[in-house]
Amino acid sequence: MVRQLTKKYRNLTAVNGISFTIKQGEIFGMLGPNGAGKTTTVEILVGLRSADAGEIRVLGFDPAAHKEKLHQKIGVQLQMPALFPRLTVGESLKLHASFYPAPFPVDQVLEWIGLADRVKTQTYKLSGGQLQRLAVGTAMISNGDIIFLDEPTTGLDPQARRQMWAVIGQLKAMGKTIFLTTHYMEEAQYLCDRVAIIDHGSIIALGTPEQLISEHFAEKAIELPQVLAEHKESLLNLPGVTRIQADGDKITLYAAQVEAAIRELIQREAAGVLTLSGLSVRSASLEDVFLKLTGRSMRQ
C-alpha cells in the first residue's frame, strides 16, 4: 500500500504524492519514460531511499523502519545492479542465495535466465544483456513474496526480452507478486495485470491495460506517412476521424469509421494529394493512451 508518496531533490519533485495498492499474485506495472519517478519509487519501496512524505507498507512492513525484515521476504533487481566483477555467474547467484532463508536452486535460476552456459564466466566478461539477465536472476533467486524488477529487459534483444517475459509469467504462475517498471509499452501491455502510467512524478492513469485503452479510445488507429503541413488539417474532415497525432515520420488518425476513412484516403491518393504507401490499421494501445494524456510519445 502506498499513500501520497512524495520525494523531492532540492527544486525537483521526483515523486509527487502518488497512491496505489498492489494485489497479491499480480504483475503490477509502473510505466513511464526515463526520469518519470519509477526508479525512485522502487528504491523507496524496498528501503534503499527515504520518502519525504507519505505512508508505505510492503508485506505489512514500513520499509524505512523494518528494512532488514522486509529484505528477507523480497527480491530486488535495480536498474544499476551491484555485481562483483571477479565473481563468476554461478558464484554471484550463490552469494545472493545466501541472503535468503529459502532461495531457489542456483541451477534452476541459471536455466530461467538463459545463463547456464556462462556459470563459470566472470561477470566483467559478460555482455550488457547478459549482465541484465544476471541482475534479474539475483532478484529471482530470493524466492521472495514480492519480486521488484526495475526495467528488467533494458539492453536485451527482442528474442531475449520475450524469453524474460516467459520467466516473469512463470513466476506469477508460482504465486509471486511482481512490481515491474518499464518504458516499453508492449511489455506493459503483454505482462501486466494492472498498470500505473507515471509522468513527471505523478500517476496520470491506473487500471488494467484493457481498461485504460477502452476508457480513452473507442476508435481504431490508422497510421500513414507524414503529409505536407497544408494537408494535415484536412485529415480531420475524414469520416469518423476524431483526432490526429503527428509522431516522427508518421501520422496516426483515430477513427470510429475506419472503412469510410480509408475509402476517402484512397480517393485523395488517386487525386495525388497524398501517398498511402505504408498505411496500416491497428487497435489502440497503451502508447496511444500515453500520447493522448501527455501530448508526446514515450521516446521524446
Overview of the molecule:
- It is a single chain.
- This protein has 11 helices and 13 strands.
- The strands form 3 sheets. The protein has a 6-stranded mixed beta sheet, with helices on both faces.
- Helix content is 34%, strand content 25%.
- The mean pLDDT is 92.
- The longest helix has 16 residues, at 158-173.
- By secondary structure, it is of the alpha/beta class.
- It folds into 2 domains: 2-208, P-loop containing nucleotide triphosphate hydrolases (Rossmann fold, 3-Layer(aba) Sandwich); 218-283, 2-Layer Sandwich (Alpha-Beta Plaits), CATH 3.30.70.
- The protein has helices at residues 38-45, 67-71, 89-97, 106-113, 128-140, 158-173, 185-191, 209-216, 229-235, 258-270, 286-294, and strands at 2-9, 12-20, 27-31, 53-56, 74-77, 146-150, 177-182, 194-199, 202-207, 220-225, 241-247, 250-255, 280-283.
What does the secondary structure layout of this molecule look like, with pairings?
Layout: E1 2-9, E2 12-20, E3 27-31, H1 38-45, E4 53-56, H2 67-71, E5 74-77, H3 89-97, H4 106-113, H5 128-140, E6 146-150, H6 158-173, E7 177-182, H7 185-191, E8 194-199, E9 202-207, H8 209-216, E10 220-225, H9 229-235, E11 241-247, E12 250-255, H10 258-270, E13 280-283, H11 286-294
Helix pairs in contact: 3-4, 3-5, 4-5, 8-11
Keywords summarizing the entry:
300 residues; alpha/beta; 11 helices; elongated
Sheet with most strands: strand arrangement: 5-6-7-3-8-9
Q: Separation of termini?
A: 31 Å
Output the number of helix runs.
11
Largest sheet descriptor: 6 strands, mixed
The overall pLDDT average reads 92
The value of Rg in angstroms is 22 Å
* Secondary structure: number of strands: 13
Supply the helix-strand structural class: alpha/beta
Architecture per CATH nomenclature, i.e. the level-2 architecture of the largest domain: 3-Layer(aba) Sandwich
The dominant shape is elongated
CATH class of the largest domain: Alpha Beta
